[in-house]
Amino acid sequence: MRIITFLAFKGGAGKTTSLCLMASVLNKRGIRLGLIDADENRSVVKWRNYGRAIGAWDEDNIKVYDGSDEERLEAAFEQAERDQPEYLLIDTHGGGSDLNQLAVLNSDLIVIPTDLGTGELDIALETMEYVMNLQKAAEVDIPTGFLLNRVQTDDAKFTIAERAAMEIMKDLPAFAVRIPFSKYYKSMAGNGPLNLYADYLRTHPDSVMRLRAPQTRMSLAQAEPMVDEILAALTVPELA
Ligand SMILES: Nc1ncnc2c1ncn2[C@@H]1O[C@H](COP(=O)(O)OP(=O)(O)O)[C@@H](O)[C@H]1O
Ligand SMILES: [Mg+2]
Fold this sequence. Notes:
Layout: E1 2-6, H1 15-28, E2 33-38, H2 43-53, E3 62-66, H3 70-83, E4 87-92, H4 98-105, E5 109-114, H5 118-138, E6 144-148, H6 160-169, H7 183-186, H8 194-202, H9 207-211, H10 213-221, H11 224-233
Parallel strand pairs: 1-4, 1-5, 2-3, 2-4, 5-6
Bound molecules: adenosine-5'-diphosphate and magnesium ion.
Residues 15-16, 39, 43, 91 line the site of magnesium ion.
């Protein structure tokens, strides 16, 4: 079982979105997953509930654990240890906390989603510093990288400000693959995993809903390289 934590001090950075996207791709591949919801907003629990409500959930291969306080997170780790999913993905709340500390220090990889807005990038750097300081104090070495979210994949379309932000990013540990803005990602939280939602749409009685199936599937396919790069980072001690 490999543990990946999605962490960002800022709310709205894309922790839940990138986790749900990754979970969708891995579920499509038939990989057994555990998801720990370590956010009192219970975004992942809600995601499962919305998916279940329309039959877009995979009970056998995706287990969701409540990790919304330290005691629950410890119990979630224990339960996952028994269930032995291939990957355990942890969604966290914003800011630094004892809860986040427990998640971070027990991870095999830490993903820090951020976009390129100045305010946002500053907080992402603070998040990275927090993670590095924790690791130093605990004498552990866990690969950690920024994941650019809501950032277009075509460099030529960058604004001057985005270009400057990319200059800062280039000296920092970051995944090369970016998650672009997508309305399919935006609505994912209310629909369950994208692969299962696409199946649901494909056979929907309403023809307008059926029309959305191919692009939903395509938006899932676009996330495959992101997942591959994150998984590859698990096997190396440090990101380039
Ligand atoms: N790549 C994206 N494309 C479209 N919408 C996104 C994207 N990433 C995040 N969002 C939207 O932005 C909001 C905040 O994202 P979320 O993943 O919930 O952030 P966090 O978990 O870090 O608080 C959500 O409404 C989400 O749907
Ligand atoms: Mg969230």
